[in-house]
Design brief:
The structure holds three protein chains of three kinds. Chain A is built from 13 helices and four strands. By secondary structure, chain A is mainly alpha-helical. Chain A has a domain at 44-160 and 172-277. A two-stranded antiparallel sheet of chain A has the order 1-4. In chain A, a hairpin with a 2-residue loop joins strand 2 (183-186) and strand 3 (189-192). By secondary structure, chain C is mainly alpha-helical. Chain C has one domain (13-355): ABC transporter involved in vitamin B12 uptake, BtuC (Orthogonal Bundle), CATH 1.10.3470. Classes of the chains: A mainly alpha, B alpha/beta, C mainly alpha. The interface between A and B is large, with 35 and 41 residues.
Chain lengths: 342, 245, 357
C-alpha cells in the first residue's frame, strides 16, 4: 500500500545478514609498506618527505592508469598507445603555460589559473584525440587482442612522431610557476608544495571516479559491463556508446596526468609516453585489470616503492617495481582486486 | 484466439562455420506460455539468442509485434519489450542484489525510483531477495541467483519474457517456488517463451509447445495434447513423463 | 632435394620464389656485386634482421605469443661477445665463451619468463615482457663497468674477421679480400643455416602443435598437449636464435651499445617487418627484412627530396623531414595490420592460388 515511500534498508531480519566483507588486505599491504620503510629510512622527517613524494607520484600515475584499466575491463581493449595521450597533455601544457607566463606574472592566483587552464585544455585536447583514436584505430579491432596490441602500438608511434612534428623532437622545459615551487617545513621534514597539490588533484579524481562508479547509474552500467557485456546489452543498454565515453574520459585523464607528470619532472620529452607506459602497465597488472580500487592501491604502492628504493638503493630502483609486481602476482595471480569476468 | 506476439519463419543461424539452426518455424501466442522443448544440442538456446540478436540469423525472419527483429542490435531488441533470462543467469556477481535490480529497471536511475508496489510483489514471490537486498549477488546460492535472474526480467512490465532452463541444477523445492512464480505471471497474462528440459515443469506451465531437434521444430501444438500422448513424448523427447523428475 | 632442404615448405608462389632467389643470390655475392662499405653494411644488417625477425615469427606468427622481450635476447647475444672480447682479450676463445655464455643466459631467462608468465593471460605476458625488457635496457646502461654504459663496448675480432687481415696480395674479382669479407660470409652462412633450421622446426610435428595452440589453445589443451610446455619451448627457441643474431651483429660491428640492440625502436622494427612481411610464414621475415632495411636507408633520401620541395612551408615541411621517416613507417604499419594482415608473402601466395585452374 505504501506506493510512494522509497525502499528503505530492509529491517532487522536482513540486518542479520552482513554486507560483503570489504577486502582490506591490499590496503594493509600499503600501510605495511609505509610502516616498514620508516625503520629502514631512519629519520622520520626524511620518511615523511619520501612518503609524500611517493603518494603524490602514485596519485599522478593513478590518474593516468585509471582510464586504461577501465577501458580494458569494460571492452577488453588493451591500448598500448595510451602513452600518446600522456605526451599530448604534457606538450599542450608547455604551450598553454608558456603562453600564459607573461600574463600570470607574480600573482599566485593568476599562476594557479594558468596551471588549471593548462590542465583543462590538455584534457579537452587529449579527449578529442582519444575520440578519433577510438574511431579510427581501436574500433576495427574489437575482440582481436593480437591486432589490438600491434595497432595501438602503431598508433602510438605515429602519434609520437606527429608530436615531434608539431613541437620538435627535443626536450622542452616545463617550469613550475613561482608560487608552486619550494616546500613547506613540517618540523624537520620538507614537503614540496607542488607534490601536495598533485596529491590533492589525484585524490579528487579518485573521489570523482568512486562517486561516479558507485553512486550513479552510468557507473553501475560500467561496473556491470566490466563483468558481463552481453547481459548489459540484453537489459537494453547501448553499452558500445558508453564505451566510447569511457575511452574519451580515459584519454582525457591521461592528458591530465601528462600535465601533472610534466610539472613533476619540470620537463617534457616526446618519449614521455613510452616511459610512463611501462609504469602504468605494471600498475594495472598489480591492481587487477578492470579494477579502479586496485589501480589506486597499485599506483600508490608503485609510487612509494620508487621513492623509497630511490633513496635506499638507487641501483635497484627500477627492479623494485618489477619485483613488486612479481611478488603480488605470486600472492594474487589476478591482481590485488580481481574482477570476476563472465 | 490470441495474437501471435512472436513469429519465427525459416530462421537459420550460423555460428562461425557451424550451421546450427536449419529453418526454425514457430509462433508464440500473446498472453500465454509457450514451451520450447528438445534434447541437448537441439538448438533451443541458439534460438533464444537469435531472437535476442546476440547471434544474427543468417536467413529467415523473426517478427515481434509484427515488426522484423532481423539485423537489429541486442539493446534495441530489448527495449522493444523483450526480457531475457539466459541459461547462465547473467547475474552481476560483484554488484549487490539491489544494484542488479536497479540495472534491470531501465526507468530507474537509482533504488529510490524503483516501483515499490511491483518490488513488494516480487519480494512476495522471492522472499530471499528482500533478505539479501544489500548482499553481493555472487554470494547467493544457485537457487537464489535464479530467482534474482527472473526477478530482473519482471521488475518492469515486459511484453515477452525469454527464459532458458531456469530449473537446471536446482533443488525440487526451489523449482516449486519457481513454478509458483511463473503461474503468478501467467495469471497476469505475461507472454513467456520457456526453454525447459524438466517435463514436469513444462506440463505444469505450458499452454503451447514447440519441440526442436537438430536445429528444426519437429512438432508444434497444444501442451495438453502432448501431455496426454506418451507415445509422442517418447518419440519426440526420448522419455516419458514418469522417468524425468 | 630442394624440397627436403626447405623442409617441404616451398614458397608456393612464382613471384615469391623469384624474389627469394634474387635475395639469396644478391646477398651471396654482395661483397663483389655491390662493393663499398655502405652497401656491405646494408647487406650485413639485412642478414642479421632476417635471423632476428624469423626467430620472432616463430613466437608471434606460429605460436601466437606477443612478446616485447625479443630485443633483450638480441642484446644478450651482442653483449656476450662484446664483454667476453673486452675482458678476455679478442680471439676465438673469447668469441666461444661469449656466445656460449650468452646462449646459456638467454636459455635461463627465457625459461624463467616463460614458465612464470605463460600461465597468465596473453595480455599480461605482453605487458610483463615490456616491463622486463625496459628494466634490462636500464640495467645495461647502469652497469657501465661491465657493459660500458651508454657508450657501449668496442672490441676486436679474431684475426680472421679483423679488417686488417688481408691474406691475398692481389685483388680478387674486383675487390681486396680482408677480414670484413670473411666475417660477412660467416654471417651469411650462419644465417642461412639457422634459417633452414627454423624452417625445419616450424614444419615439424612440434611446429604443428604450436600452430594448433595459436588457433585454439583451449582445444589443444583438451586434446592433451600441455600448452605451457610448448609455449615455453617456443619462447626458449625464439630467444636462442635471437641471441645468435645478436652475437652475429656484435661480430660485424665490433661494437655493442644499448641502442644497437636494446632500444625499443628495434623492437618496433621487428614488429613492422614481421607484419609487413607476413606473420607465420618465415619467408616473410626474409622479404620483409630486405624491404625494410632498403627502405630505412633510402626512404630518408626520398624524404629529403620531398623536404626540399616543401621547404619553407611551416608544419607540412616537418611532415616530410627525413628525421620523421618513422612516422610514415608507422602509418604503413597500421595500414598493414588492417588491410594486409597476411603481409607480402600472404598476398603473393593468395595471388598464386587464385590463378590456379
Amino acid at each position: 500500500m505504501s506506493a510512494t515511500t522509497a525502499i528503505a534498508t530492509p529491517t532487522a531480519a536482513a540486518a542479520a545478514v552482513p554486507k560483503a566483507q570489504f577486502d582490506w588486505r591490499p590496503l594493509a599491504l600499503l600501510v605495511g609498506l609505509m610502516g616498514l620503510a620508516l625503520p629502514a629510512i631512519g629519520t622520520p622527517s626524511t620518511w615523511l618527505t619520501l612518503t609524500v613524494a611517493g603518494l603524490a607520484m602514485g596519485l599522478i600515475i593513478f590518474v593516468i592508469a585509471s582510464g586504461l584499466t577501465l577501458v580494458f575491463g569494460l571492452m577488453d581493449v588493451l591500448n598500448f598507445g595510451h602513452g600518446v595521450f600522456i605526451a599530448l597533455g604534457a606538450f599542450m601544457a608547455t604551450t598553454v603555460m608558456g603562453g600564459m607566463t607573461g600574463w600570470a606574472g607574480e600573482s599566485t592566483a593568476l599562476q594557479l589559473t594558468s596551471v588549471f587552464t593548462a590542465m583543462v585544455v590538455a584534457m579537452v585536447v587529449a579527449g578529442a584525440v582519444g575520440w578519433a583514436f577510438e574511431r579510427v584505430i581501436v574500433r576495427p579491432v574489437y575482440g582481436l587482442h593480437l591486432k589490438q596490441i600491434l595497432i595501438t602500438m602503431g598508433g602510438m608511434i605515429v602519434g609520437e612522431e606527429i608530436i615531434k612534428v608539431i613541437w620538435g623532437p627535443q626536450q622542452i622545459a616545463l617550469p613550475l610557476p613561482s608560487s608552486l615551487t619550494g616546500s613547506w617545513l613540517l618540523g624537520e621534514a620538507s614537503i614540496e608544495k607542488y607534490r601536495v597539490m598533485a596529491a590533492g588533484i589525484g585524490l579528487l579524481v579518485f573521489a570523482a571516479l568512486a562517486f561516479t562508479l558507485n553512486r550513479t547509474k552510468v557507473g553501475l552500467l560500467i561496473r556491470a559491463g566490466v563483468q558481463d557485456r552481453e547481459m548489459v546489452e540484453s537489459l537494453g543498454y547501448r553499452i558500445r556508446r558508453l564505451f566510447v565515453g569511457v575511452f574519451v574520459a580515459g584519454s582525457a585523464l591521461a592528458g591530465l596526468g601528462g600535465v601533472m607528470w610534466g610539472l613533476y619532472q619540470q620537463n617534457v620529452t616526446p618519449q614521455i609516453g613510452g616511459q610512463v607506459n611501462v609504469l602504468i602497465f605494471i600498475v594495472i597488472i598489480i591492481g587487477g585489470l578492470g579494477s579502479t580500487l586496485g589501480c589506486f592501491v597499485g599506483a600508490l604502492l608503485v609510487g612509494l616503492m620508487a621513492n623509497y628504493t630511490g633513496f635506499l638503493a638507487p641501483k635497484v630502483a627500477l627492479f623494485s617495481n618489477i619485483g613488486l609486481m612479481v611478488a603480488i602476482l605470486l600472492w594474487r595471480p589476478q591482481g590485488l582486486y580481481p574482477v570476476t569476468n563472465r | 484466439m490470441s495474437q501471435n506476439l512472436l513469429e519465427l519463419t525459416g530462421v537459420h543461424t550460423h555460428i562461425g562455420a557451424y550451421h546450427i539452426l536449419h529453418g526454425v518455424d514457430f509462433v508464440v501466442p500473446e498472453g500465454e506460455v509457450t514451451m520450447l522443448l528438445g534434447r541437448n544440442g537441439a538448438g533451443k538456446t541458439t534460438t533464444l539468442r537469435t531472437i535476442m540478436g546476440l547471434w544474427q540469423a543468417s536467413a529467415g525472419d523473426l517478427r515481434f509485434k509484427g515488426r522484423s527483429l532481423k539485423g537489429q542490435a541486442t539493446p534495441d531488441i530489448a527495449t522493444q519489450g523483450i526480457a531475457y533470462v539466459p541459461e547462465s543467469m547473467g547475474i552481476f556477481t560483484d554488484l549487490t542484489v539491489k544494484e542488479n535490480m536497479v540495472l534491470a529497471a531501465r526507468a530507474a536511475r537509482n533504488a529510490s525510483e524503483l516501483d515499490t508496489q511491483r518490488l513488494e510483489w516480487i519480494f512476495g514471490l522471492f522472499p530471499a531477495l528482500k533478505k539479501f537486498w544489500l548482499y553481493p549477488a555472487g554470494k547467493l546460492s544457485g537457487g537464489q541467483k535464479q530467482m534474482l535472474a527472473v526477478a530482473r526480467a519482471i521488475c518492469e512490465p515486459r511484453a515477452l519474457i525469454l527464459i532458458d532452463e531456469p530449473s537446471k541444477g536446482l533443488a525440487p523445492s526451489i523449482i516449486n517456488n519457481l513454478i509458483a512464480a511463473f503461474k503468478e505471471l501467467k495469471r497476469q497474462k505475461t507472454t513467456i517463451l520457456l526453454v525447459e528440459q524438466n517435463f514436469m515443469m513444462a506440463k505444469a506451465l505450458g499452454d503451447w509447445v514447440a519441440v526442436m531437434d537438430n536445429g528444426r521444430v519437429v512438432h508444434r501444438g497444444a501442451m495438453a495434447e502432448l501431455a496426454e500422448d506418451e507415445a509422442m513424448q517418447q518419440r519426440l523427447l526420448g522419455l516419458s513423463l514418469g522417468t524425468h523428475q | 632435394m630442394l624440397n627436403r632442404l626447405l623442409s617441404h615448405d616451398l614458397p608456393r608462389s612464382r613471384w615469391l620464389a623469384i624474389a627469394l632467389l634474387l635475395i639469396v643470390i644478391g646477398l651471396a655475392v654482395a661483397p663483389f656485386a655491390f662493393p663499398g662499405s655502405k652497401s656491405l653494411n646494408v647487406a650485413a644488417k639485412m642478414l642479421v634482421f632476417i635471423l632476428l625477425v624469423a626467430s620472432y615469427d616463430l613466437l608471434l606468427g606460429y605460436t601466437g605469443i606477443v612478446s616485447f622481450a625479443h630485443t633483450m635476447f638480441f642484446g644478450i647475444g651482442a653483449y656476450g661477445v662484446a664483454v667476453a672480447s673486452t675482458r678476455m682479450g679478442e680471439g676465438w676463445p673469447a668469441l666461444a665463451v661469449g656466445v656460449a655464455g650468452a646462449l646459456l643466459i638467454s636459455l635461463a631467462l627465457s625459461l624463467v619468463i616463460g614458465l612464470f608468465s605463460l600461465r597468465v593471460k596473453a595480455i599480461f605476458y605482453a605487458m610483463i615482457t615490456l616491463a622486463v625488457a625496459s628494466a634490462f635496457q636500464t640495467l645495461a646502461s647502469q652497469l657501465s663497468d661491465i657493459t660500458g654504459g651508454e657508450d657501449g663496448l668496442s672490441f676486436k675480432n679474431p684475426t680472421l674477421f679483423s679488417p686488417s687481415f688481408e691474406p691475398f696480395e692481389n685483388v680478387v674479382l674486383g675487390i681486396t679480400i680482408d677480414g670484413r669479407i670473411f666475417s660477412y660470409y660467416a654471417l651469411f652462412f650462419v644465417v642461412l643455416g639457422l634459417f633452414l633450421v627454423l624452417l625445419r622446426i616450424v614444419n615439424s610435428p612440434f611446429g604443428r602443435v604450436l600452430q594448433a595452440i595459436r588457433e585454439n589453445d583451449f582445444r589443444a589443451e583438451a586434446i592433451g598437449f600441455r600448452t605451457v610446455v610448448f609455449r615455453t619451448l617456443s619462447n626458449v627457441l625464439s630467444a636462442l636464435f635471437a641471441c645468435a643474431a645478436g652475437a652475429l651483429l656484435a661480430l660485424w660491428l665490433r661494437y655493442t651499445g644499448p641502442d644497437t640492440t636494446l632500444s625499443f625502436e628495434i623492437m618496433l622494427d621487428i614488429l613492422l617487418i614481421v607484419v609487413i612481411g607476413g606473420m607465420g610464414t618465415m619467408y616473410g621475415a626474409v622479404v620483409g627484412a630486405v624491404l625494410f632495411v632498403l627502405a630505412q636507408n633510402y626512404l630518408q633520401d626520398l624524404l629529403k627530396i620531398g623536404a626540399t620541395a616543401l621547404e619553407g612551408v611551416p608544419v607540412l615541411a616537418q611532415f616530410v623531414s627525413p628525421d620523421r621517416w618513422l612516422l610514415w613507417l608507422g602509418v604503413l604499419f597500421v595500414l598493414s595490420v588492417y588491410h594486409f594482415p597476411t603481409g607480402v608473402v600472404g598476398r603473393l601466395r593468395a595471388l598464386a592460388l587464385s590463378h590456379k585452374p
